[in-house]
Amino acid sequence: MVPVLMKDITFKLLRDPTMRTGIFLAVFLVGGTVLGGMLVPHDPFQINMNNRLQGASFEHWLGTDQLGRDVFSRIVYGAKLTIGLSIFAIMIAVIIGVPIGLFTGFIGGKIDAFLMRIVDGILSFPDFILAIAIAGMLGPNLTNVILAIVLVRWIVYARVVRGLVLAEKEKEYVLVSKVSFSSTFKTIRMHLLPQVIPDIIVMAAIDVGKVILLISAFSYIGIGAQPPIPEWGAMLNEGRTYFQVVPSLMIYPGLAIMLIVLCCNLLGDGLKNYFDIRKRRG
Amino acid sequence: MVKNSLISIQDLRITSKSAEKVLVSNVNLEIEKGEIVGLIGESGSGKSLTARAVMRLVSPDMKVSGKILYKGTDLLTTTPREHRHILGRKIGMIFQDYRGSFTPFIKIGNQMIETIRTHDKMSGNEAKNIALTVLEEMGLESRRVYNSYSFQLSGGQVQRAAIAMSLALKPDLIICDEMTTALDVMNSERVLHYIDYIRQNTGCSILMITHDLTLAYKRTDRIYVMSQGEIVEEGLPEQIRCHHKHPYTKKLCSCLLSLPEAESLQQKRVYLV
Amino acid sequence: MRRILSIVASRLLQLLIMVSVLSFVTFGLMKFTPGDPIRDLLKVDDVIATKADEEKLKKEYGFDQPILVQYGHWILNVMQFDLGESIISKRPVMEMILSRLPATIALTIGGMVVLFLIAIPFGTLGAAYEARWPDFISRWLAMLGASIPSFWLGLLLIYFFSLKLNLLPVMGKGTLAHFVLPSITLGIAMAPMYIRLLRERLISTLQSSYIEAARARGLSKERILFFHALRGSLIPLITMFGLSIGSLLGGITVIEILFSWPGMGELIVNSVKQRDYPVIQGYILIVGFLVVITNLIVDLLYLVVNPQIKQGKESV
Fold this sequence. Notes:
Chain C: GO terms for molecular function: nickel cation transmembrane transporter activity. Chain C: One of its GO terms (cellular component) is plasma membrane. Chain C: Keywords: Cell membrane, Ion transport, Membrane, Nickel, Nickel transport, Transmembrane, Transmembrane helix, Transport. Chain C: This is Nickel import system permease protein NikB. The complex is a heterotrimer. Chain A is mostly helical. Chain A has helices at about 1-15, 15-40, 70-105, 110-125, 125-140, 140-170, 170-180, 185-220, 230-240, 250-275. The mean pLDDT of chain A is about 80. Chain B has two domains: about 1-90 and about 170-185 and about 205-270, P-loop containing nucleotide triphosphate hydrolases (Rossmann fold, 3-Layer(aba) Sandwich); about 100-170, no CATH class. Helices cover about 40% and strands about 25% of the residues of chain B. In chain B, strands 6-7-8-3-9-10 form a six-stranded mixed sheet, with helices on both faces. In chain B, strands 2-1-4-5 form a four-stranded antiparallel sheet, covered by helices on one side. Chain B starts with a strand and ends with a helix. Chain C is built from 13 helices and no strands. In chain C, α5 crosses α12. At the A-C interface, α4, α5, α8 and α10 of A face α1, α6, α7, α10 and α11 of C.
């Protein structure tokens, strides 16, 4: 049974052209990172002043930077760092936001109304600037940027989940579960949680891309990852003065960001089509 | 077959491409000049779709075959340009949803001028005069309606303005798709009265699409009965009412609670002739 | 008139909630922050920090008082339009931020012009040729635009137009030419959302009954598209602008840094690096104010543009 089901899902996923492109891009990026890391194992932090600003070669696939470090190794390292941190940040936001959304939406009442008033007040404020402010208050470094992103993002998940629960909880099967003396917790877990999971997955997939953009933007303007950490935005910031001489220092980190974010967006849209989510979220 | 027909639909067949479903088939329908023809059937029987095929308003997902001859030209094969020229100018249509008869954020007067000037080269002032005249003819306060948005008027007023719009171009045929369904009785009567008025004054033909049998008996010269995408019966209103052959028509007529008295039917016909 | 009043009232309430929550959060963060602003300040000034110096400065900025007192003090000052003064430059925060406002507004307007020049043609093309190749192109452009980091796009533009082709100046503000690249970058960064929204709205408008009626009247395809469908679909873009003013103010920050554009964003980033708390707090307050005011203007504008709402009928 299970293999048949898997085959079914795979077939359905691959039928959607958006999803197909996204999956191929993901395979290409992951494969390139893993293979490249095995074939050319340079230390991304190793400075070699005799070997500065080299062009692409067999030894250094994408050349070297202003301190003679291997650009490819730095991009691969940056990929692990950035993607890992984004997924981590979104996971934490989901873990905090989803239960709160489920409970406030299900229980309702005055607490819910009060909380949502506040949430709406915060949500209409630009999250980027709030994150800047939080990072600014706590001190500009990568950890605080992640903290700021989590502090801002969980609210969005709570809000969306609450909205879905409000729409769902008046439906018959939830009411039946309610009157049949199931506990609140059980009703939520059995009936409401499965309903919101597809939305959460789609949202999270797209959000990972957004967070990658956010982290790199923060690092680029100098309040995120600090040198010598090979975060892509920080790499662009560090190499700024050498662009005119060695444009490849500018091209590759940016391209890496774009491809990975594109991949997240494609997968997110593909999943949206797969779960048939339409206009549930603006 | 009728020789002097204005419009003649032959073997019309509409299929849905994606669902591979036949929606309309074997539809043969003739309308003579000056005739009011009723097309009745329950919702979903394909009567609206038939009208839409004439107007080329079927969705691109559907395939239309057969012939729709208007004075000998096949409307299914004309170029979009020629077809547009016939639409509005020669064939007007009035829809059920009166809120959708006019674009909501453009004043009715401007839309009338736009339509008139699309079909006839004339100055804005001339077009305005025509628009005001036809609105007046439809018993509306012409200036107020002219300067209104459609949502500022009642349903009956909007439908009369829509009739006025078609009248302005003096078409040969007006297709009325359930035009009174969304209106109350008084307004319906008023709108239908103006339809009769137009026909008497301009001699145009009318295709009245409705699920309301009473209306069809009272107002039409000839009736086609449609069911499940096919025309099952055709005849004079009395025939359809009293001497129907097809089981579907029988069912349809037995559903009708109160039929108008035979005399009033008679009177109506005298009035129409 | 009653509608206008209720709109204004609800936006004011929003402003009140937003400002109190945000000021509370920033104040709380400042209290629990591991670094100490006074120490930072002493470090910046390169003075040998003695206990006495520290105490003196703490007193000067009121940091020796309990946090709630500090908060209350700050709120009272805010109500008198006094946001305190910068730790670094000693200038009044209000004056510092407001002097940067015109540059940011100018860039916003430039970005909006570019945005609409991109979004309207591509959104319209996508809807008019739904599921055919122009739609395919417009969808892919929107997808790519949403994936490209704005600062990288800016760097590429600088590289090609300023360094390679020598057409436009790289950075700074002054002539109209300085204005071009930042506006283009901002416009492209904002465009994807609008392309998608316009395309979707236009597709659903094109299926509405009034468009059908317009076609039945024999109007030309172009006329229906531009005069009947597009006009109705542009109204949601105004709402979108209100909703996205926040993300615009965020995105503009990065672009201001990139082009050394002397707007509010550049000020805030530099203040964050120097941990100039009064400026950060004041900036948050002013951004919140700008967001709410923009939304209020959008609400009122919507009332004017859409005659149906003026009538109190929101159907269709």
